[in-house]
Every structure is written in C-alpha cells, then in structure tokens.
Amino acid sequence: MISIQAVTYPIDFNEKAYTALAGLIRSSNYSSIFILVDNNTITHCYPRFIKLLETDKKIEVIEIEAGEVNKNINTCVGVWNAMTELGADRKSLLITLGGGVITDLGGFVASTFKRGIDFVNIPTTLLSMVDASVGGKTGVDLGVLKNQIGLFTNPKMIVLDPEYLQTLSAREIRSGTAEIIKYGMTHDIHLFNEIKDNIKLNIVDLIHRSIEIKNEVVLEDPKENGIRKALNWGHTIGHGVESYFLESSHKENLTHGEAIAVGIICETYISSKLTGFPLNKVKSVKNAIITIYGKVPVIEGDFNAILNFMKHDKKNINGEINFVLLEDFEKFKINCKVSNELIKESLKYYNE
Question: Which of 167, 186, 211, 308 could cross-link with 44 by S-S, CB 3.0 to 4.6 Å?
C-alpha cells in the first residue's frame, strides 16, 4: 500500500513502515524508547513488533489494563509515574502499540509529559487503524463520558501493519467496520456497498481508502471547526448509547462499533425526517446494519438516560445537541438541531 502524507507526519504501511520507523529513531537521536501496551497487545502484538524494531536505544515497556473503562486520567497518572521512575526525559520517544484506547491515551500522555514528547502510533485493531490513530486527536474519558479531556497533537508517524488484525476476534473486526461504513455513507458509497454486498470481504482492502478519506478531511479542517464534524456521523446517538451501556450495571458493555451501528440507523432515520434522505435507503441501511451487528437491547426505558449522556457531546453548543445528517449518500449537513422527541422516535424505529 502506498504511504499517505498527513499534515505533519507520514502513514506508512507493512514492512516499509518499520524501515521508516528505524530511520526516524536514528535521525531524531532519541535518548530512550517507551512502548505502551495493554495486557492483550503485550501477548499478541509485542512479539511481532519487537522483532521488527531496529534500534540499539534503551527500551522500556509499560503495560496497562485493556478496555475503555481504563481510558481515564488515573491510568495516565500511572503511566506518567512509570515513565518518570524509568528515567524518561524530553528526548524520549513513546510508541503506542494497541487499539483506540492505547493510541488515544498514549498520545495524550506523550503530549503532556514534560510539556510534550514525540510519539508514534502503531494501531493494532481495525478501529484504531481506520479512525482512532489518524487525525491528531488524543484524550481520555471523564467517567463514562467519551473523550472529554484531550488535545489535538500529531504523532511523528503512524506504522500501519494489517498483520495485527490476525490477533482480533470477529467481534472486534465488526467494531472497526462501523467506522468504514461511516466513511462510505458520508464520502464514498463504494465502501458501504462493498461491506453490505460481500459476506466474505477481505476488510484489509478497504483500510487504505478509509484512511485516505479521513486524512483528506483532517487536512481541510484539523481542529474540527467545520467539515471534520462529518466524521461524527452515527456518533452523536452512538456515543450516548455506548456511555449508557458502560455506566449501567444491568447492561452488557458494547464495543464502540456496536454502539455506532445503533447511532447510524437512528441518525439515518432522523435524516429522512429533516434533510430528505430517501426512505427506501433508510430501510436498506437498517437491514444491512442489523445483518452485520444484530440488535442491541435498547428499550424505551433507556431513552431518557441515553439523551442525558448525549448532552455532553463535544459538538454541542449552548446546550443544544448538534447532529451530522445526510441528504443522501455522500451528501451531509453539519450542525443540525434535532428535538428530543425525534431522537426518541429514531430509537423506537431502531427497535421496530
């Protein structure tokens, strides 16, 4: 796959990426290298990575517990303390080896440690490959509120090695696929059609195009003041559902993609009511999403709690919930206002 140039960093693929990483380490003359992993990637991904890492620099590995529940400031304090005790300085490099939690949290840790050290993202899940690791967003959750604390800070490079996908469950692959569906519906319908029409699709074939789309949008709007908001398609309701299921003791946690899948169906329905998205396409989207993800048990008694979590969405201004809506595939509108009644109606539609 051909390298992609982001605003200040390259996204390199496969074996070439490790050669580029070795060159970065040599040319930057880092004092030491820290590798942030979780208890999954230390077992399944670190052995491959360390064999391919060419350096004679001192290496320290810092391991945290996996899962969204650990994406918080307390985990950051633990990592900052570990780096301090292990002698990290302003010329150290932090390499994040993991999924969205690791790349988001690790980038935030690096961006704030000694007022900022360099970091490199090596995403190991489909979700982090096509979304979380690209675009310069770093941060952590505040309780169960998604990504409330963070910074825009770019890595020095991204190493994208699809071999790490071999370590994932089918459920994790489906989770990342939701982000590719988002790109398909908002920017390139070919991606969505490939997913819904090909049961045995090799998802690796869609990664490069997905990253291209995100990078093109971020180049135009790096700080999410305008068009980049389109990349939140499905996420306004989706994040509300995800946070509610994380917080609820009587609900099983959802993957990010499972929650976004609910959001995509609901926001497609809302689009048919407010921005003219064709009703026949609403039904097609719902059928495709349910076929891939099944049904999440969102009952009417959950609706108010989901709405309460949605009020903390980062796009909101003056207490109003802002949506991205579609007029059609590849035609979106940002900063759309939606009533609570219509949001609840869309959740009912999801359940029908």
Answer: 167
- Cα atoms found within 13 Å of the Cα of residue 32, Cβ hemisphere only: 13
- What is the band of 318 on the pLDDT scale with cuts at 50, 70, 90? low
* Cβ 159 vs Cβ 120: under 8 Å: yes
Hey, what are 214's tokens?
């995100």
10-13 vs 4-5, strand pairing mode = antiparallel
CB-CB neighbours of 325 under 10 Å: 24
Whether the Cβ atoms of residue 343 and residue 237 lie closer than 8 Å to each other:
yes
What is the rounded radius of gyration, in angstroms, for the C-alpha atoms of the chain? Answer: 20
CA 87 from centre of chain: 31
Distance CA 291, CA 74 (A): 38
The pTM of the full predicted model, rounded to 2 decimals, is: 0.93
Distance of alpha carbon 84 from alpha carbon 80, whole angstroms: 6
Q: Report the sign of the C-alpha dihedral through residues 209, 329, 351, 292, in that order.
A: negative
Residue 253 carries which side chain, given as an amino acid letter? N
Determine contact, residues 315/243, Cβ cutoff 8 Å. no
Choose among 119, 82, 81: nearest CA to 103: 119
Question: What are residue 86's phi and psi, to 5 degrees?
Answer: -90, 5
